[in-house]
Amino acid sequence: MSTLSFHDVRVRYGSHTVLDDVSLEVADGQTVGLVGESGCGKSTLARAAVGLAPLTGGQILLDGRPVPNRGRRPVQMVFQDPYSSLDPRMTVGESLAEAMPERLGRTARQAEITRLLALVHLDAARAADLPVRLSGGQRQRVALARALAARPQVILADEITSALDVSVQGAVLNLIRDMRRDLGLSMLFISHNLAVVRYVADHVAVLHNGQIVEFGPTAQVLGAPRHDYTRHLLAAIPGAVPLKEQT
Amino acid sequence: MRAARVLLRPVGFAGFGLLTLVLLAAAFGPVLWGGRAAAVDTGNLLAGPSAEHWIGTDNLGRDLFARVLVAARLSIVLAVAATAISLVLGILLGAAPMLLGRRLGRLVTSAVNVLVAFPGLLLVLFFAVVFGVGARGAALAVGVAGAPAFARLCHTLMAAVSERDYIAVARIAGVSRIRVLLRHVLPNVAEPLIVNATMAAGGVLLTFAGLSFLGLGVQSPSYDWGKLMQDGLNGIYVHPLAALAPGIAVVLAGLAFNLTGEAFAAVFGLGDLPGGARSLEEPREPVAATPAVPGTVLSVEGLRVTIPGPAGPIRAVRGVTFALSDGEAVGVVGESGSGKSLTALAVAGLIEPPVRVEADHLLVAGEDLMAAGAHRRLGTSLAIVFQDPMTSFNPAHRVGPQLAEVSRFHQRMGRKAALARAVDRLRAVRIREPERRARQYPFEFSGGMRQRAMIGMGLMGDPRLIIADEPTTALDVTVQRQVLELLAEVRRDTGAALLLISHDVSVVTDVCDRVLVMYAGRVVEELPAKDLRTLARHPYTRALVAAVPDMDTDLSRPLAVIPGLPADPVHVPAGCAFAPRCPLADDHCRAVAPALVAGVACHKSTEVPV
């Protein structure tokens, strides 16, 4: 695994600035949580790192070298909607095989598929299934396995639990923590849910209107926030502060 | 299975039957009747129908019936070839934005858009002149002229598919553009393309007949149906069958293609729900209507919602009973498929056939919703807030008039008075500059503001009950908080009761007095909201609460998970629906469904350590 760093990244669509000089580092083996409201540019930052959003300025470096945005990316991304991220006409095994970096023989490929499915706690027999036979949580695990199949150096997880039911969300979050422990994954974990980020991330970055307003160790940022906006976000969590009627 | 369904329809059966006949004629016609069609009989020139020559002979005495059958091959081959040319060109042009990149792709798309605007026949004639007279020229002309329409279709279909995340994933994985097109895009647009190509083939057949008829198509000595029609035209007043028979052949073959296409479209498109008309429920004893308890705004007993499905009826809500007192806030939590939203929709009277709603009784604000016309009498005593505020407003109308419509319809207010009330209500839900906002369209509102306006619409009348179905799920936490606070404030000011549906346990505990926990279409536990985290007795409730991380979750331990999968609503087990996932379940649990007694539906509730 390696270090992914964003240097003064700027993304603009027309006159609308989505990201404004964002600098952020996902260090080797670390999980960095990225939080903020919808529309603040969280997803755009991840998409920029894999070449799905054009940079207007700045650089995204992997171990000091620009991330290639053609061919197989050393940075892989997992998307929010597990119903959109798997080709409905390809079996689980085919989807995984497509993402593998080298062409393997039949037996080697089967072994690799079994290994990947085991990593995400899925039965090897699932390889022959079409996505339609899988539940949302199972699909999201396949999506994670596919990201791992490409042998990435960094994984970007964009709201990967927000489309899942709460009981399934727990299983996926446990999986993320297991994988980080066992594989030493570096990960940028994007979520609007602070409790989820608190559970999986070592560091947290708070994005607001395209700018990072606070960055630091999770316990510090969520426990003793320094920026007003972070405090505002924390206060809005249901159950954090009793609801007050507006005056 | 789907192919079988094509044949089961009358349209599909007729289409396939005709198509088989036409294709058989095309395949074997020249072999079987080729000799007869070419045999010159100088003693029988331009004869009329007879026992020997069913539809007569042509100017060389050749049998016309045999010629029509033999012509099937050339006509069909030309039509299929031209359609194939259209299809391939169309796919290439349609995929241009994907293959060539954004800028070049846009150029191609604009060109296609211009070409689509030309009348088809004009293009055919133009290309027919360019490619020259004859069968090959005609096939090329018709094929190329048909390409823009296919290109437009392909472009639209592919644009929809390329938005999907799996395309992005494949690109990130380094799959080349061509391979993405072949492996991911084409298979996912193939169905509608094939359907359209089948239908287009029918049209192309007609175009060919037209071209040959005009003398631009097939030339002697070859002949297709159009050529035969042209030959027969000279004698149309003497023996009309000579011209009509090939015409009938064109019509039949065209019908064959079109009907087959129609049947495919019907099956692959919006399939209807088989079994929709079937009666799903066993007959049940009539129940004497229970009179409404005073002070109760909502009273539901034995509510059942059944959705007809291909694998059998889905019993989404299976006997739900609860009541809301005036001014009370009750939350319904559960995962997707638990039936919580359908319960809310049924209470709001918003479920339409083929989905069936049954209840022993269902009283909302004193009106029996199971009686006819109750919904209208309910008027404005019920307010509803949905999850997606974008789809709950009509995007083509300004917000103010949409709110005003409620008062004009239910309270017979004048236009001006109603609009004034709308502005007043927008102010009440804390929308700034309500006069200006009332004149705006829904898309000019942010998500949170639309949700406020929706609540404002509920406040146009004098609601006694507000039903909110996941009102904050689409909103950010900060906006979510504002909307929840607004709901609390509205309740305080109007004294309305609130039925809040949510998957988020913490939202419900924040807002509600009482919580109903649903699993597989039943209420499994009912308890005060403040006890949800600490005093829950049902194993499912406890697991649900434990599975959600909050800001105090122990970071050193894995999150609690619920093993197994949610109950399949088509095959709900006989006993407790949660038993297959429950650590406490025994044979009794698997055999006998527990009733909701003293707030919990669990045989083992006494064994759960509190």
TrEMBL record, chain A:
Keywords, comma-separated and alphabetical: ATP-binding, Nucleotide-binding, Transport
Question: A GO molecular-function term, please?
Answer: ATP hydrolysis activity
A Gene Ontology biological process in which this protein takes part is:
transmembrane transport
Is Protein biosynthesis among the key words of this record? no
Identify its protein family.
Belongs to the ABC transporter superfamily.
Tell me the domain of life: Bacteria
- Record bears the keyword Flavoprotein: no
Organism per entry: Planotetraspora mira
**One family name in Pfam for this protein:** ABC_tran
Tell me the PROSITE patterns matching this sequence. Answer: ABC_TRANSPORTER_1, ABC_TRANSPORTER_2
Q: What is this protein called?
A: Dipeptide/oligopeptide/nickel ABC transporter ATP-binding protein
ABC transporter domain mapped to chain residues: 4-234
Taxonomic lineage from the root: Bacteria, Bacillati, Actinomycetota, Actinomycetes, Streptosporangiales
TrEMBL record, chain B:
GO CC aspect terms: plasma membrane
Give the UniProt record's GO annotations in the biological process aspect: peptide transport; transmembrane transport
Q: Which residues form the signal peptide?
A: none
Bilayer topology reads: Multi-pass membrane protein; Peripheral membrane protein
Recorded GO molecular functions are: ATP binding; ATP hydrolysis activity
Question: Record's superkingdom?
Answer: Bacteria
| Keywords (A to Z) from UniProt | ATP-binding, Cell membrane, Membrane, Nucleotide-binding, Transmembrane, Transmembrane helix, Transport
Cite the PROSITE patterns for this sequence.
ABC_TM1, ABC_TRANSPORTER_1, ABC_TRANSPORTER_2
Keyword set includes Electron transport:
no
Q: Where in the cell is it found?
A: Cell membrane; Membrane
Chain ranges of the ABC transporter domain: 298-545
* Residue span, ABC transmembrane type-1 domain: 72-261
Entry keyword Kinase: no
Which InterPro entries does the UniProt record give? AAA+_ATPase, ABC_Ni/Peptide_Import, ABC_transporter-like_ATP-bd, ABC_transporter-like_CS, MetI-like, MetI-like_sf, Oligopep_ABC_C, P-loop_NTPase
Residue stretches spanning the membrane: 12-33, 74-100, 112-133, 193-216, 236-257
Q: Which family does the record assign?
A: Belongs to the ABC transporter superfamily.
The protein's matches in NCBIfam families, at most eight in alphabetical order, are given as: oligo_HPY
Name recorded for this polypeptide: Peptide ABC transporter ATP-binding protein
User: Source taxonomy lineage?
Assistant: Bacteria, Bacillati, Actinomycetota, Actinomycetes, Streptosporangiales
